[in-house]
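Local shape tokens:
==================
===
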Amino acid sequence: MLHSMRYFDRAALFIEACLKYGVMETNDDINKLIGVAFVDYAKLLRSIGLKQGAVLWASRAGEAGKELLDELSQTEGTVLESSPSEEEVDNSLGNIE
């Protein structure tokens, strides 16, 4: 639902939290949906100039993120913006109400 409302950031972080705490089971169909959500979040990050974050989320998308990873690697010569580390993302998940 979050993804269909174009809340790509919230959808990706919610999925990540569900996977981390074992709330969501995965199968082929679910993995495709997860990949789409992660790729859309990566595209959002790329559009606002956070290329390093885009690479992180595109790589988490698996097969769905390969094309975006290729695009991002072609523009790798540019300076990458800083993005939150894994630890910062994990810490921010604890603040969700």
Q: What stands out?
A: Residues 8-93 form one domain.
